[in-house]
Amino acid sequence: MRPAALIGFAAAALLLGALVVGYLVAIPALFSSPLLDANLARALAAPLGQRLADLVVAASVVLALATPRWIVSKAGTTIALVLTAAALAHRLLLVPHLDRLWARVDVVAARPVDLLAEAQRWSDHQQWLLVAMGVLVLALFGLATRRTV
């Protein structure tokens, strides 16, 4: 196996693992814990979400650097660059905005209602962005398994 393919597969696997295990398993597990109230779970999830976002950015940059030598299709390079841009936008714009919104909300008392609704709406946007990033990683895996004729 070529080194670029090995690095590409490792970065894509790390990226997909951070998206799936981190955002879809670890963070929701904090919120479903009976030992934590919703405010404490939110406070504990914020640094974890930031570290996961950092990991997603780093893996997507490595993936974007490895993709041109790994996947012969120019679509693979384009997908990797779009994935890197999405990861950067997520880390630099969306995560700090969500942290500021959730810091001003008392989740247990559900107050203030307008900020809670806005924070929930932006959290939904984050979930859709994470799903789209996961689909892009799966598309890269699909392009990597395609045989050249």
In brief:
The protein has 149 residues and is mainly α. It has four helices and no strands.
Q: Could you walk me through the main structural features you see in this protein, from its secondary elements to its overall organization?
A:
This protein is an all-alpha fold and 149 residues long. It contains four helices and no strands. The protein has helices at 3-31, 38-70, 74-103, 113-145. It starts with a helix and ends with a helix.
Q: Given the C-alpha coordinates, what overall shape results?
A: elongated
Distance from N terminus to C terminus (CA atoms, Å) equals 19 Å
| Helix percentage | over 70%
What integer is the average pLDDT?
A: 93
Number of helices: 4
Low-confidence stretches: none
Rg, Cα atoms, Å: 17 Å
Secondary structural class = mainly alpha
The helix/strand series, from N terminus to C terminus, equals HHHH
Strand content: under 5%
Q: How many strands in all?
A: 0
**Oligomeric grouping of the chains:** single chain
Described by strand count, sense and barrel closure, the largest sheet is:
none
